[in-house]
Amino acid sequence: MAASGRTAGTSPPRPCKDKLRAAEGGKPGAQSAALTAAEPPRRAMPRFTVHIRDEWLAVACRDTSNTIQWLGQEALKRYIKNKPDNGGIGSVKETRFIVRRCQGSGLLDPDDTIDDVLEDNDFVELAIEGDTMSSEFIPCQPGVSNITAAYKEPAEYISLDGNSLTSTDLVNLGRGLYKIKLTLEAERKVVQARELLDTIVKENKVVYGITTGFGKFARTVIPVSKLKELQENLVRSHSAGLGNPLSPERTRMLLALRINVLAKGYSGISLETLQAMIQAFNASCLSFVPEKGTVGASGDLAPLSHLALGLMGEGKMWSPKSGWADAKYVLEAHGLKPISLKPKEGLALINGTQMITSLGAEAVERAQAIAQQADIVAALTLEVLKGTTKAFDSDIHSLRPHPGQTEVALRFRSLLDSDHHPSEIAESHRFCDRVQDAYTMRCCPQVHGITNDTIKFVQNIINTEINSATDNPMVFAERGETISGGNFHGEYPAKALDFLSIAVHELASISERRIERLCNPSLSELPAFLVNEGGLNSGFMIAHCTAASLVSENKVLCHPSSVDSLSTSAATEDHVSMGGWAARKALRVVEHVEQVLAIELLAACQGIEFLRPLRTTTPLEKVYDLVRTVVKPWIKDRFLSPDIEAVHRLLLDQKVWNVAKPYIEKYQTEYIPESRPVSPTAFSLDPPASPRKRVRHE
């Protein structure tokens, strides 16, 4: 199987458990007696995990016909058992409380039976009347998208080898479309590197991060008896991040990417620990990873430490079954055990650029999708504003042959070429006296083009980083040595993502100006703010303000974070990349661009209404029809935010691109001759015919 290949249905082989185990310390013949008189296996007693205030409690239930009220009271009994003054609770029976699911926070009726509303190993929250919501309880909704809310366990696998993963694959792993397994070659290299580390420990060699402290403590030699504690302390002390947790999709990407990097076989992780990480990923058991706290060198230490902490059974974890809960309970509920760190494994888990890179992968994938669709939106606006296609003539762009500019101009021609997709709107103004259009329409190939070229540049860096070993020290099994280096420094992805923010922002900047032209009657020849009975109705007035505010926010967010550096770790780590913030703000910039273009698309479709019964080109009519499946025409003022969100969702799902793509590809692959419509501004260099040679028509 090719690395990064996908296989459906079959899961990786698992070691079989013995059906019967010999009775230890029993009488002779006890085992054979067990074989001849085997009893049917007992069904495990259902168990539920209940969160009360600051504690998680496991409650076994012999009879699932008991009620939710009974479950709550049983949990309260366990809660007060070891509490001074019973935790302030007088009588369990007289205590009033409500019970809700951790996943979704849905309230449970106290009179319902457990069997009817809960499944084995479900997680629930008990809130005592008079208490505020527990500070330890984290509801699942914040940061959980519709993708995760509808999560279904995938049947297909991606095989990781540390060399072949792409940004597209990584985003799909984040969306829960695939499980993970290792290639045989990756397993071999992981085992080989681990054997070298075990030899180093056995021979009491002094090697950074394996038998020494870290950073400023690199010269402190640690006794062999404390090497496990050294790695655990590293993860715990470095779990110092703050802020909201990464969404489950982004944590899934982070975990998948760390697995891929470890699969290269240069970090010294044991195959046992790596397989435990894969099992957690495949069960979607995801650690609580705060979004803030990394300076991007030595890698993303804080977020990756939080990722490792959950795998150790400490801190919080999320799964589709449990919502947020204590990590040890989430792992146990999925039949998993916390990882036990061997020498160097803590360092192997937390040293690298995976948070910058995983968030960067999402940013660049979304940037690519919105850049393609920006051309479609702008083409529709040009039609509504009765612009000309002459600025997209291939001869113009061949004189300045930047790849992105050429590509965008071709895309505009494929959407607007009247001879191949007749536009009644274009024909209606073909012989107008307008000489040329404003820059926001005429210069789209030049402005959108550099954005496309920058995205490709960034994507190349991100894909290289995805398959790079960014640990320290690196373990070279074939050379029999470990080498300290600086691959953990996040400057590459940090700089690239700052470039991405600057480039993709321009799509929103130019889009906002086109929205202004659509809404301004002196520029559009359309009703003010695209609505009838102006004054009574305000139409798109404030939608344009929203677009302007997002563009203004982007101007601040586009300030590069990677130009900053603060010395850390007692001047040991004296230059850092600040790549974590570069990645986070790149995502915000891309989201704002998507939203501004959603507003432009809505406004352009509304503009079409005032040009009816004239029709635009076939592909643009298809785009209009798509928008009208989620948003009806604007007849009078109504609540506008849901319309913007609905069209934003069309762009996120790339539905606008998918509708127009067949027409774009057909135009580009069939070598259709370029049409060059005649207009009053056109002229010929041929001399006029001589009067004596003029043909006389009778």
Automatic annotation (TrEMBL):
Keywords for the protein's UniProt record, in alphabetical order: Histidine metabolism, Lyase
Record-linked Pfam families: Lyase_aromatic, Par3_HAL_N_term
Domain of life: Eukaryota
Protein name according to UniProt: Histidine ammonia-lyase
Domain Par3/HAL N-terminal: 49-123
Residue ranges, compositional bias (Basic and acidic residues): 15-24
NCBIfam families, per the entry: hutH, PRK09367.1
The family this protein is said to belong to: Belongs to the PAL/histidase family.
Pathway: Amino-acid degradation; L-histidine degradation into L-glutamate; N-formimidoyl-L-glutamate from L-histidine: step 1/3
